[in-house]
Structure to design on (160 residues):
């Protein structure tokens, strides 16, 4: 697994997600205990509610394991104010995206260090293919990245 770049806000967001999943595990365990108490007989034979609780528990445990693995690869990066001509975390940048010879568009994105960016408002993660190629590049740079075996050329026009 590659390292995952986040800023302080992104790291705190990740920790909140991990804590939320751990709490979900505890809630599920409590409801499993209640299901067993309310069951007739030995509590688990032909008990579909119990089966569902156990299925959910396996999913939650798997998610916790995945998050703990991700945590090993998180690297917290600091925002720097060194050069205004360099793309940095929390910058809004106007890009020219060239998908093909006759297919290009300008788009404003916000490069974010969040663990889970909000794509509805144009946030792009440092860890996305686009985020990786523009992070710490100079305004005016031309870079490219590949998605689904398709090369996309990018020109960093300006900060907005």
């Amino acid at each position: 697994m590659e390292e995952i770049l986040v800023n302080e806000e992104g790291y705190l967001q990740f920790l909140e997600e991990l804590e939320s999943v751990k709490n979900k595990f505890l809630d599920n365990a409590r409801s499993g205990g209640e299901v067993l108490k309310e069951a007739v007989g030995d509590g688990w034979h032909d008990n579909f509610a119990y089966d569902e609780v156990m299925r959910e528990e396996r999913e939650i445990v798997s998610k916790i394991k995945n998050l703990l693995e991700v945590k090993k690869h998180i690297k917290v990066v600091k925002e720097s104010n060194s050069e205004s001509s360099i793309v940095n975390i929390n910058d809004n940048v106007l890009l020219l995206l060239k998908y093909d010879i006759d297919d290009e568009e300008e788009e404003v994105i916000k490069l974010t260090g969040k663990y889970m960016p909000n794509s509805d408002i144009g946030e792009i993660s440092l860890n996305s293919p686009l985020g990786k190629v523009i992070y710490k590049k100079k305004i005016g740079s031309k870079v490219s990245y590949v998605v689904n075996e398709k090369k996309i050329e990018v020109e960093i026009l300006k900060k907005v």
